[in-house]
Design brief:
The chain is mostly helical. The chain has three helices and no strands. It has one domain. Helix content is 53%, strand content 0%.
Length: 92
């Protein structure tokens, strides 16, 4: 906890932004598991043939729960980082 208190406001902003980006990449990975587009290459469909690429193996509400959980983690960490200092910490 003392390490967090030693961070300046600019460093805290950098940590929050970096955490947000890391969680966004994690969310994209989790919600794209099982998707043919996740193979990062040609996935063998012919245009205009009526074949539809399926999305994630997770349903829409499961994807929503993943994103809400990640946003909750990011919000909790941000609140922790930007909390006002305790009354005893200002003298130090």
């Amino acid at each position: 906890m003392q390490r967090v208190d030693r961070l300046g406001i600019a460093q805290r902003i950098i940590v929050v932004v970096a955490l947000g980006l890391a969680l966004a990449v994690t969310g994209e990975f989790i919600t794209s598991i099982g998707s043919p587009a996740a193979n990062f290459g040609w996935f063998g469909y012919a245009p205009l043939t009526g074949s539809i690429l399926t999305g994630s193996t997770l349903s829409n509400w499961e994807q929503l729960l993943v994103w809400l959980a990640l946003i909750s983690v990011w919000t909790a960490c941000s609140i922790y980082l930007f909390r006002p200092p305790a009354s005893g910490d200002e003298a130090g």
